[in-house]
Amino acid sequence: MRAVLVIFFLVAVVQCMANDDVSDEEWNSYKKLYNKNYATSSEDRLRRQIYKDNKNQFETHNGRFAAGLETWEMGVNQFTDLTSEEFQMMSCSSPLEDVRADYVYMPPANLKLPKSVDWRKKKAVSGIRHLGQCASCYAFATVAAIESHQFLKTGKMIELSEQNLLDCSSNPPYTNKGCYSGTVDESLRYVKENGINTRSSYGYEGKRGKCRFRKDHNGANVAASVLVNRNDEYALQAAVATIGPVTVTFNGQHMQGYISGIAQKPCTKNTTYHSLLVVGYGTDKGVDYWLLKNAWGKWGESGYMRVARNKNNYCGIASWPVFPVI
Q1: Which residues are designated catalytic?
Q2: Average of pLDDT values for 256-266?
Q3: Is it true that domain 103-325 has CATH number 3.90.70.10?
Q4: Among 152-161, 183-192, 267-276, 284-293, which stretch is predicted with the lowest mean pLDDT?
Q5: Which segments constitute the Peptidase C1A papain C-terminal domain (predicted)?
Q6: What one-character DSSP code corresponds to residue 279?
Q7: Every domain of the chain and the residues it spans
Q8: pTM for the full predicted model
């Protein structure tokens, strides 16, 4: 009974604190930090109120986190001035019906898997990048996967061009949509048929431009794409453990306020499709998790996110897993 009273007390304190107005200093600092510029003073007031409302929700959630009732922490980031509906409209990956892949991965029988994997420790994961205002996570996830698998094959980490995919896989016969979303399997199809330039020769601009691929600046080739057996978290775990990082496209609606920990709140049908790279997995305080590489700069856990593993295919995490063969 005493523990319950303590929990209610903590939540009440957080809610009481959350009722304070956002100061001018805090609001101006937020806008400066995330380079926020609003067209009118009325929009500025609206965004400030949304920021306040979101922050109140985060603080209430974090009261539950402090009381041990949640496994992840929420906080202010570049999306705090957006409503949840606006954030859900920011899908940077197209929903998939059929994945175009050359093969399907099924884990072999009697496979003994390690309890945890982190490919960063093998230096097989490139650095965190930022996609900016362009909905191009599909390109960043694809490039990150190719970089990792090429490293695992050759021992060389060669940074590749997301802009190459943004520009060139959005032209017929390819079906990506530039800064308006795309898919990993279509991006891998482009690289399989053309190659991909190095990042140093074809830098990221954050907007779709004319295709400028040059064969003399090619940095990698893809021999095939592989779909991990769908909706099968064990198959995904086996692929990550024995082959390497795997791209996933899932409902990222809880990414808006994510700061740290293991997200495991159920997703609704209103979906924000987002593509990331699974670079490992493990267990923390009895909760199984997937370790995901994102492309939003220092967001989350230094650019990474952990989400629930072995929890009914959390938010579709194992619905569309794909990796390249170099």
Answers
A1: 137, 274, 294
A2: 95
A3: yes
A4: 267-276
A5: 113-325
A6: E
A7: 2-70, 103-325
A8: 0.91
